[in-house]
Amino acid sequence: MSSPPDFECIPFGERGWLARIVGFEDDVASGLFANAAADALRPFNGVTDAVAGIDSVTIRFDPTQIETETAREVLCKVLTTVKAPDAGNTAEDIIDIPVLYGGDAGPDLADLCRNNRLSRDEFISRL
After folding, report:
1. How far apart are CA 66 and CA 68, in angstroms?
2. Where is 120: in which H helix or E strand?
3. Residue 126 has what pLDDT?
4. Contact 45, 68 (CB under 8 A)
5. Which segments in the chain show pLDDT lower than 70?
6. What pLDDT does 89 receive?
7. Under the phi-then-psi rule, with left for phi > 0, alpha for psi from -120 to 50, and beta for the rest, what region is 68?
8. What is the pLDDT of residue 25?
9. Per-residue pLDDT, 127
10. Which residues contact 68 (CB under 8 A, 6 or more apart)?
11. Residue 84 has what pLDDT?
12. Cα distance between residue 1 and residue 44, in whole Å
């Protein structure tokens, strides 16, 4: 996404704002954007918490440190300027995790295969 996403800011109780984000191709891209926005919001004076959802960002604020409308403006400004990390993986992003199946590492593998009418290899390939 080259341009900022569309969003709608609505009150979230007396001390919060919720921004619903639209315009991403998938949940991964939307979630990455929301996380980047939440990370950018946390350092602002008066913002007590910023939480990312799949298609939303919620902030909580301390009204003794920041006015309600100013908190909304901060949220909107971040949503129009933050850049989400790329959702694609590079070779440096991939981590190999060794996995063991059956034996001491998975004593229930034989039962699972039998109950699902799958061979050991078929069962493992579906994980």
Report:
1. 7
2. helix 120-125
3. 86
4. no
5. 1-3, 85-93
6. 55
7. alpha
8. 81
9. 76
10. 61
11. 72
12. 26
Alpha helix ranges (H) inside 5-119 = 27-41, 68-81, 109-115
Token digits of residue 108:
């229930």
Stretch (H or E) spanning 60: strand 56-61
Count Cα neighbours of 62 within 13 Å in the Cβ-side half-sphere.
9
Q: What is the pLDDT of residue 87?
A: 55
pLDDT score for 15: 96
b vs e for 35-44, b when ≥16 Cβ sit within 10 Å of the residue's Cβ? bbbbebbeeb
Sequence-distant (6+) residues with CB within 8 A of 85 are 32, 36
